[in-house]
């Protein structure tokens, strides 16, 4: 798929642009992207496996220019969630129509960003169930249910969610809620290997998407609310062998620590109890990779328990809780750290989305890492060294008066403390911004943050003692005053990371909205808690389009891809996650059902107008015009004029997309046992190829 051909032909007009782009893609004898078969090998399972086998380290590094595919969780290894596709843009997005909708058959929160590899979409639903779909039609290709015990749902903090898969060298990798890491055959969905990455006797869980870093599968885990010790692991994709494991907090202080970094962290912890319940610091979501610096970045979570008075009664920063960590992907060694919330007392975490970008700051090009963690400050760090560059509050922040520009430490004030009394703190454990991914558009220079204003009560639990299988926060009555709909809100926030200030905002009413996607078409997409799906102009925030087709609240992030020259924008719907479960009045205000679904939109839907047919003929592409003529000579009598089947026989627009060059084989040889005749002797192979090109040039069914 050539993004360049789209750009070049965009001025010709939308529909024509689609057709010409499609033709440009199939000008050679190569199998069409999205085709599930080839003349030599029409087996769709083999074709899927082959397409996924071509996703290697080089291709992942080059993903930025591969607009048709979405090869990893954040689209590119810098996790910008910026797409170069421009077929859908600010001028035509109001024409976007539902192309297809697929229901997962699952309830509860759906948080996945789907991946697309050459026309196949891979995603997860709740309970870590994996789906492979035809990305052009939404047709289910395979499904893998890891059969997670329902009892595991008792020891996850924030719903039985999963954020998606990784694809690498022919396999699909998924972290399973119960702590497994599974490698599935991308063709069939059959498991190749599974390993337990956690101690099943402890309350670990996995909700995050694996990442592929230079031939290794990287996976973290969650569970800090229940009392665990955080770590991140690297596995061998070939057989699931553990390559390295890096703990984020020290272990038993009477023993040597596993690394020098943990020896350095040890004096920042006080008391003699914290290590017995793990200490926390779980790596449950954010990761990014810079192949030039060869650094893997991960975010670590809150302490076990939340309350610092209990966890570390003599004070201390408690490294490396709530920190951005730069690791050597070869061995997992911690190269540098930056702690966003020293001695985290509020479940503020630094597990939120990490984005790598190159920004001009004070006249100098800087390689930076960006984060908007739960604590309410937007951070810009030098990603080579971890040097603090700047931080400003992006929502209402009451617990600190800013971040000291010299030390990079928050200027904490007394209002956030709760040693004896009660504190109402903004933001709170739900975060100024949580796991819902943000996005960065290098053309506007803005970061698009699903931001929210939620305050929360904190009061020390005087009777605290660790209880296995329970919430171990050390905070009492956490949820009592939750959460009147009048007191909370959410908005899409466009943030300038250089000026460290708001560019624009779009109010969304309720909090707990979806992640964001931004594109070179000057667009930002976001789904909402109350089930809308929005497109806004990236430069100024003007609302351009919205859909109500999702059928549920949307918390996941949208993504975009192309098949056969058509750009799709897709999002997973499925109301759930922490706030949806515990948010009481404010969550009920969304008035949505929890129904898992994928919705995909495109500029071309069912309608083929007379104008569109004229435009097609006006393209004067000889192959398409001849294909149209041949189609109406040989095929239209049974399969419908203008490529549109009336419902009696198969719609050949769909068949041409599904079969690729195998379509020509069917035309030549017929389908024995059906009324489809063979056209051998009546049509040449070139003829059937031109019919296929005509069908592919039509707007899809
Ligand atoms: Ca937490």
How is the topology of this model organized?
Layout: H1 3-9, H2 14-25, H3 44-53, H4 57-61, E1 82-83, E2 97-103, E3 115-117, E4 120-124, E5 130-134, E6 140-144, E7 166-168, E8 171-175, E9 180-185, E10 191-196, E11 211-212, E12 217-219, E13 231-235, E14 242-247, H5 260-265, E15 287-290, E16 295-299, H6 308-311, E17 323-327, E18 334-339, E19 354-361, E20 364-371, E21 377-382, E22 388-393, E23 400-403, E24 410-412, E25 422-425, E26 439-441, E27 446-453, E28 456-459, E29 489-496, E30 501-509, E31 516-519, E32 523-527, E33 533-537, E34 543-547, E35 559-563, E36 566-573, H7 578-582, H8 584-588, E37 597-602, H9 610-618, H10 622-634, H11 636-639, H12 652-659, H13 662-669, H14 685-697
Parallel strand pairs: 1-31
Antiparallel strand pairs: 2-37, 3-4, 4-5, 5-6, 7-8, 8-9, 9-10, 11-12, 12-13, 13-14, 15-16, 16-17, 17-18, 19-20, 20-21, 21-22, 23-24, 25-28, 26-27, 27-29, 29-30, 31-32, 32-33, 33-34, 35-36, 36-37
Bound molecules: calcium ion (CA).
The site of calcium ion has 6 residues, from loops.
Can you describe this structure?
This protein is α+β, with helices and mostly antiparallel strands and 701 residues long. It starts with a helix and ends with a helix. The protein has a five-stranded mixed β-sheet with strand order 1-31-32-33-34, with no helix packed on it. A four-stranded antiparallel β-sheet has the order 2-37-36-35. β15 (287-290) and β16 form a beta hairpin. Helix content is 16%, strand content 27%. The protein folds into two domains: 82-603, Methanol Dehydrogenase, Chain A; 622-701, Cytochrome c-like domain (Cytochrome Bc1 Complex, Chain D, domain 2). Residues 224-225, 301-302, 347, 349 line the site of calcium ion.
């Amino acid at each position: 798929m050539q993004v360049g051909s789209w750009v070049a032909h965009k001025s010709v007009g939308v529909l024509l642009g689609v057709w010409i782009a499609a033709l440009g893609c199939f000008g050679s004898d190569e199998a069409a992207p999205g085709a599930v078969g080839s003349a030599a090998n029409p087996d769709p399972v083999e074709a899927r496996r082959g397409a996924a086998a071509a996703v290697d380290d080089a291709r992942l590094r080059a993903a930025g220019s591969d607009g048709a595919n979405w090869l990893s969780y954040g689209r590119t290894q810098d996790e910008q969630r910026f797409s170069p596709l421009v077929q859908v843009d600010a001028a035509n997005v109001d024409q976007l129509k539902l192309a297809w909708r697929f229901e997962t058959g699952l309830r509860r929160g759906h948080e996945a960003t789907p991946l697309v590899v050459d026309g196949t979409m891979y995603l997860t639903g709740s309970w870590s169930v994996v789906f492979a779909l035809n990305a052009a039609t939404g047709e289910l290709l395979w499904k893998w249910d890891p059969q997670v015990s329902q009892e595991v749902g008792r020891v996850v903090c924030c719903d039985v969610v999963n954020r998606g898969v990784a694809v690498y060298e022919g396999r699909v990798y998924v972290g399973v809620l119960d702590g497994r890491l599974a490698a599935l055959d991308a063709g069939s969905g059959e498991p190749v290997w599974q390993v337990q990455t956690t101690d099943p006797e402890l309350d670990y869980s996995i909700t995050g998407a694996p990442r592929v870093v230079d031939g290794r599968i990287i996976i973290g885990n969650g569970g800090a609310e229940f009392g665990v010790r955080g770590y991140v692991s690297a596995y061998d994709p070939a057989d699931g062998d553990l390559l390295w494991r890096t703990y984020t907090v020290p272990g038993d202080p009477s023993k040597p620590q596993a690394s020098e970094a943990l020896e350095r962290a040890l004096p920042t912890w006080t008391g003699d109890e914290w290590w017995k319940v793990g200490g926390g610091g779980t790596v449950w979501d954010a990761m990014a990779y810079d192949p030039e610096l060869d650094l893997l970045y991960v975010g670590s979570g809150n302490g076990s328990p939340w309350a610092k008075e209990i966890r570390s009664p003599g004070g201390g920063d408690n490294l490396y809780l709530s920190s951005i960590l730069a690791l050597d992907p070869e061995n997992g060694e911690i190269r540098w750290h930056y702690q966003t919330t020293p001695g985290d007392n509020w479940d503020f975490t630094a597990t939120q989305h990490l984005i790598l970008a190159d920004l001009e700051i004070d006249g100098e090009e800087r390689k930076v890492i960006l984060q908007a963690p739960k604590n309410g400050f937007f951070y810009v760090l030098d990603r080579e060294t971890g040097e603090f560059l700047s931080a400003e509050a992006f929502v209402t922040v009451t617990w600190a008066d800013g971040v000291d520009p010299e030390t990079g430490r928050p200027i904490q004030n007394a209002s956030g403390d709760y040693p004896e009394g009660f504190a109402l703190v903004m933001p709170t454990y739900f975060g100024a911004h949580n796991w819902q991914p943000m996005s960065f558009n290098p053309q506007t220079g803005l970061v698009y943050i699903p931001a929210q204003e939620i305050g929360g009560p904190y009061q020390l639990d005087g009777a605290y003692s660790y209880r296995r299988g329970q919430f171990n926060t050390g905070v009492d009555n956490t949820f009592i005053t939750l959460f009147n709909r009048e007191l909370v809100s959410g908005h899409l926030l466009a943030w300038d990371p250089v000026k460290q200030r708001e560019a624009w905002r779009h109010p969304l009413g309720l909090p707990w909205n979806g992640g964001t996607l931004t594109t070179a078409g000057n667009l930002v997409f976001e789904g909402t808690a109350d089930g809308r799906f929005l497109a806004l102009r990236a430069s100024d925030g003007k609302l351009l389009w919205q859909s109500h087709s999702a059928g549920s609240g949307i918390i996941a992030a949208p993504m975009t891809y192309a098949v056969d020259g058509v750009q799709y924008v897709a999002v997973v719907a499925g109301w759930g996650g922490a706030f949806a479960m515990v948010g009481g009045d404010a969550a009920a205000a969304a008035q949505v059902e929890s129904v898992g679904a994928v919705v995909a939109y495109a500029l071309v839907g069912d309608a083929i107008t007379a104008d569109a047919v004229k435009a097609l003929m006006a393209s004067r592409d000889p192959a398409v015009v001849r294909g149209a003529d041949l189609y109406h000579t040989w095929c239209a009598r049974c399969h419908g004029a203008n490529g549109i089947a009336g419902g009696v026989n198969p719609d050949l627009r769909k068949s041409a997309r599904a079969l690729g060059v195998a379509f020509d084989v069917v035309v030549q040889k017929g389908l024995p046992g059906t009324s489809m005749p063979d056209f051998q002797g009546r049509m040449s192979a070139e003829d059937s190829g031109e019919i296929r090109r005509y069908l592919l040039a039509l707007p899809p069914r």
